[in-house]
Amino acid sequence: MQDRLSELFHKYINDNCSGAELAELFELFSLTENETTVKALITQTIEDINQHPAQINTFLSTGDAEKILSKILPNTHPITTETNIPPRVSSLGWWYWTAAAMVAVLIGLSGYYYVYHASRTPSAQITPADRHNISGNNKATLILHNGQTIALDSVQNGLLATQGAGRVVKTKTGEIIYSAAEKEAEGIMYNNITTPRGGQYSLQLSDGSKVWLNAASSIRFPVVFPASERKVYITGEAYFEIAHLTDHRHQAMPFIVESDNKYATNGSYKVEVLGTKFNINAYSNEPFVSTTLLEGKVKVHAYNTMQSRVLFPNQQVNITPKGEMNLTTPADPGIVIAWKNGYTQFSAVPLSVVMRQIERWYDVNVQFEDHITDVRFTGKLKRNESLSEFLRILDLNDIQYEISNSTIVIKNKK
């Protein structure tokens, strides 16, 4: 039994538990004879956290996380529970609650709510539509060179269009792939793919480079790249994996990403790359444009000041609207591209930063009352969680809010 408990515990820590395994884990937690094993697992995990603090994946504020962890120490008083928690759960020993809380601190809030906050209700009424509002769906609109508009999330798979020497295909997995025919291109034809708030999409350009678009983002690009250059224009956020190509002189052909000034409002920039992997966050409501390099090398230019900087792996440069450049090293690429991998992840960031992502991912509006204390959050949340799951995180941190239609108002504590 102890071996099974240890197996499930470590699966849960690594976020690999199925629903059935999760129920089995907490059932094993409830057995008194497992108390020693549970405490040993928690003790080992605390030691791991002390050596590797980045392992803590939770949307609890730092203070609340410390309070929960303190409950695991010897001579801890029992955790108080709500009076309307089902009798089977509320009768469990204090070590059960602290074990569950410890797991919650490590991987998120799902387990914590399962055993500790099952009876809590949000501080505002959530409509059925809000409750099931899921973020991160594959939604985007393709605008062809001739102006034709195609809703990519609803169009059938297969050949979507032929434009000059280029073909556009939607695969069975939903990805959009551009390819070039053998014949010579008939001038440069541009396409545009735009994601709405609450959407995301991926595509492969005609040169084999791959692009992932975050919510409320766009990319404008040639259907077939000319022989002289590869250049695309974006707004919002995009992650790139660039194919290495050579020109007719067998020289490496650069790939250029620029701000799309037809739509962008937060300053002009250019990123020049060779074969590499990088992320650009250029949302107009963010305080700066961020370029983060994972592999290879890029050169970032700020047009306003004519400054430029070369980035190496695990470096990030932020460009202010005035063109000032600030380097962050080492950056954490895992957090930066968590959105591409199906997560929302933060590291000690203010609530205002969190809520800007929530706006884009759940297609809601967020307002702050004056003089709000900006609590900082560290953690990771699956991006297919419903909006109500995120609102419970606000409840747990005693953040008061009201919901009116599709607007969340963060309020002062009374």
Key descriptive features of the protein:
single chain, 414 residues, alpha+beta, Phage tail protein beta-alpha-beta fold, Jelly Rolls, 19-stranded mixed sheet, three-stranded mixed sheet, 11 helices, 24 strands, transmembrane helix, FecR_C, membrane, transmembrane, FecR
What does this protein look like?
It is a single chain. It is built from eleven helices and 24 strands. With 414 residues, the protein is an alpha+beta fold. α1 crosses α2 and α3 runs parallel beside α6. β16 and β17 form a beta hairpin. The strands form three sheets. It has a 19-stranded mixed sheet that branches. About 14% of the residues have low confidence. It folds into three domains: 114 residues, no CATH class; 75 residues, Phage tail protein beta-alpha-beta fold, CATH 3.55.50.30; 200 residues, Jelly Rolls (Sandwich). Helix content is 25%, strand content 30%. It holds the Pfam family FecR_C. Keywords: Membrane, Transmembrane, Transmembrane helix. InterPro entries: FecR, FecR_C, Ferrdict_sens_TM. This is DUF4974 domain-containing protein.
Short characterization:
The chain is of the alpha+beta class and 414 residues long. It contains 11 helices and 24 strands.
Share of β-strand residues: 25-35%
Domains, number: 3
What portion of residues is helical?
10-25%
| CATH top-level class of the largest domain | Mainly Beta
* SSE-based structural type: alpha+beta
Q: Using the 3D structure, state the CATH architecture of the largest domain.
A: Sandwich
The gross shape turns out to be globular
How many H/I helical runs? 11
CATH topology title of the largest domain: Jelly Rolls
Number of strands: 24
- Poorly predicted runs: 52-58, 71-97, 105-126
Determine the oligomeric state from the structure.
Answer: single chain
- The rounded distance between the terminal residues' Cα atoms is 49 Å
Largest sheet: 19 strands, mixed
Cα Rg: 24 Å
Mean pLDDT comes to: 76
